[in-house]
Write a structure and sequence with these properties.
This protein is an alpha/beta fold. It has helices at about 20-30, 75-85, 105-115, 135-140, 160-170, 190-205, 240-245, 250-270, 290-295, and strands at about 5-15, 45-50, 55-60, 90-95, 120-125, 150, 215-225, 225-235, 270-280. The chain folds into 2 domains: about 5-170, P-loop containing nucleotide triphosphate hydrolases (Rossmann fold), CATH 3.40.50.300; about 190-295, K homology (KH) domain (GMP Synthetase, Chain A, domain 3, 2-Layer Sandwich), CATH 3.30.300. Helix content is about 30%, strand content about 20%. The strands form 2 sheets. Strands 2-3-1-4-5-6 form a 6-stranded mixed beta sheet, with helices on both faces. The protein has a 3-stranded mixed beta sheet with strand order 7-8-9. Helix 6 packs antiparallel against helix 8. The longest helix is centred in the C-terminal third of the chain and has 18 residues, at about 250-270. It binds guanosine-5'-triphosphate and magnesium ion (MG).
Length: about 300
């Protein structure tokens, strides 16, 4: 294979929750196509983001964090979705946090040993390290781990060393023509992205368990002459949670709506009118049928 030939393929980003997978996807694509938050289990779906360059087109696939809590149907759905995303791709990016190794990382490492894919180990958040010299001894634990073809420390947030990562991914892709138009950003619909942006703003504003107990459904998505009309329903489990999502005097919901709308206008290049309703549906995170009706159909 010649290095200057055009290559095209897919790379999945996997790892435990909160290591920075979605942040990396957004930085690689140059747009917010996947939502992020400082809380674990933010991503719930497989989301493809496209990087088109002169020498390659790479579809990076973001996945939910693989985790140990398997109590709710939602938790099990997240793990299933992440594991399924390793099948059929060319390269796996195994993201961890630099200088922090947990049991959940060990779970992912064990699973990847069984996959036959090339795996790149990517310790993220190196911007938080005081000195670079700590990293080498920490990486010793991977000596003799021949499943990792390369180890590429990065900072997704500060965009450090991402070019090296893209180069290593590209080197492992087949020579093939682009499969998508060069201006494609994601394999997800605008409707889907709209729902995710509402969920992101609420996830960032709400404490503790509540982000895990809510889902967003887009009921209306209609392009009128000069405006995009979007209607969203936020599903929670109980009336008391409804009050928290709405906030005193509607403050929480109003702020979340304004932020989501601003992001939508930038992403869709159009004015947006956004209405959000909050409704209660008991037990939805535990009900496979309701999950499917909300689009969690793995
Ligand atoms: N300091 C620092 N923080 C980062 C970096 N990358 C991501 N973060 C932060 O880490 C947190 C989690 O980031 P996400 O991208 O949502 O993590 P994730 O792996 O997608 O998480 P799940 O979707 O829950 O599995 C957010 O607060 C990010 O801003 C980085 O390079 N440096
Ligand atoms: Mg994520």
């Amino acid at each position: 294979m010649r290095a200057d030939e055009f290559r095209c393929g897919t790379a999945t980003i996997v790892g435990r929750p909160n290591v920075g997978k979605s942040t990396l996807l957004n930085r690689l694509v140059g747009q917010k196509v996947s939502i992020t938050a400082s809380k674990p289990q933010t991503t719930r779906h497989r989301i493809g983001g496209v990087l088109s360059r002169d020498d390659a087109q790479i579809v990076f696939v973001d996945t939910p964090g693989i985790h140990r809590d398997r109590r709710s149907a939602m938790s099990r759905y997240l793990n299933r979705t992440a594991r399924g995303a390793v099948d059929g791709v060319d390269v796996v990016i195994f993201m961890v946090e630099a200088l922090r190794w947990t049991d959940e990382d060990e779970d992912v490492r064990r699973e990847l040993r069984e996959s036959r894919k090339p795996v790149l180990l990517v310790p993220n958040k190196i911007d938080r390290m005081v000195g670079r010299e700590e990293l080498l001894p920490w990486l010793d634990r991977f000596r003799g781990e021949d499943r990792f073809e390369e180890i590429i420390p990065v900072s997704a947030r500060r965009q450090q060393n991402l070019e090296a990562l893209v180069g290593e991914v590209r080197a492992r892709l087949p020579v093939a023509p682009a499969m998508l138009p060069s201006d494609a950003l994601t394999d997800r619909s605008e409707r889907f992205l709209a729902g995710e942006l509402v969920r992101e703003k609420l996830t960032r504003k709400l404490d503790q368990e509540l982000p895990y107990r809510l889902a967003v459904e887009i009921e209306e998505f209609r392009r009128e002459k000069r405006i995009l009309r979007i209607g969203a329903v936020v599903w929670v489990e109980r009336a008391s949670q409804k009050g928290i999502v709405i906030g005193k005097g509607g403050r929480v919901l109003k702020a979340a709506g304004a932020e989501a709308r601003a992001n939508m206008e930038a992403l869709f290049g159009s004015r947006v009118h956004l209405d959000i309703w909050v409704k209660a549906r008991a037990g939805w995170p535990n009900d496979e049928k309701v999950l499917r009706s909300l689009g969690y159909d793995g």
